[in-house]
Amino acid sequence: MTDGLSSAQIGRRLGLRVPTVKAHVSRIMEKLHCESRVQAGLLAMRAGLGGAGHSSDEV
């Protein structure tokens, strides 16, 4: 999410189906009390979890 990938792109990287990715993203957002993927991604980046500069093998 920190790389701005769509659910389909994340699924391809991890070998998961889109509904599975969406379910995990929803749970992450709920646990972080985020209203959007952007907000969750920013929180993750601030915590040092991904984003620009990471290899394409990481999500």
Secondary structure: elements and pairs:
Elements: H1 7-14, H2 18-32, H3 37-46
Spatial shape: globular
- Report the sheet-strand fraction: under 5%
Count, helices = 3
* Backbone CA Rg: 11 Å
> What kind of sheet is the major sheet?
none
- Share in helix: 55-70%
Give a structural overview.
With 59 residues, the protein is mostly helical. 56% of the residues lie in helices and 0% in strands. It has 3 helices and no strands. The chain has helices at 7-14, 18-32, 37-46. Helix 1 crosses helix 2 (18-32). The longest helix has 15 residues, at 18-32. It is globular and about 25 Å long.
Top keywords for this entry?
mainly alpha; 59 residues
Write a brief structural summary.
The chain is 56% helix and 0% strand. It has helices at residues 7-14, 18-32, 37-46.
